[in-house]
Specification:
Elements (H helix, E strand, L loop, with lengths): L12 E2 L12 E13 L6 E10 L8 E2 L3 E5 L6 H8 L7 E6 L2 E3 L5 H11 E5 L10 H12 L4 H14 L15 H12 L6 E5 L7 H18 L2 E5 L11 E6 L2 E8 L7 H24 L1
Parallel strand pairs: 5-10, 5-11, 8-9, 9-10
Antiparallel strand pairs: 1-12, 2-3, 2-4, 2-6, 6-7, 11-12
Amino acid sequence: MDECSILGEENTWIESAPTLQKPLGETVLTIKNLNKYYKIPGSDEIVRALKDINLSPDSPFYPIRKGEFVILRGPSGGGKTTLLNILGTIDSASSGELKILGERISADSADSYLSNLRLRKIGFVFQTFNLLATMTAFENVELPMTVMGKLTKKQRKEKTLRLLRAVGLQDRINHLPSELSGGEQQRVTIARALANDPEILLLDEPTGDLDTLNTIEIMDLLLKINLEQKTTCIMVTHNPDVECYGDRLLFMQDGQFYKQVINEVQTALIYEDYTEYLKAKDKNKEIEGLDNAEV
């Protein structure tokens, strides 16, 4: 059974770049001939983490546009998180060209310039939440606005409450991270990532530590943000079942793109149908295990 056929509305998967049913905006991210090398300390050995990555008009892997939801897939060690860190300017490429929102990023870009770019334009959501343990949900979400320094205290309060309501945590604003479930902590992380109205949202395994229900709720929330706010989302995941939330899948292996798949219609998983599918999948594995044991 195809993972995306359990959704109630079957998706159409094709290998080229069609006109999507949802309109996309201008180009927000372009990559040309990007490489990342690491030198192993104490030796002359070079590890190539990324090899000639392209997301450009003259490449089969075309640039990322405003409002697009791109999912990076592939085996561990394939370069997905390395690429995401470079797109978020947390790390720098060894060679090649990267343009984010028309601004050229290179190893020579000043740390202050990159910090300001991240604060203004890029939101981050990680698997491990990275919330400040001594701050409440409200304080964690308000913090980026305080650092930005553009809003008054009253404006920050109003926006923080609005964001926490949007992620369904209006009753948990004064709770510390330790007092919240994993799903609730991830909702706080998403609200915090949206605090300064980023144009690009980078997500590294955002549902990796969550159960089935929370996985669907978080993915539904991300889909809503993507569709309603036109926020460009780029997400790394090992979970093939959430592929149907994206517009485009980029498959990576050994530091390279090797396949691109387009989903013409984004669709949310249906919890009841999905859990039945997972049960059937586990049962089939159990039967296969018994059959192999008998052989």
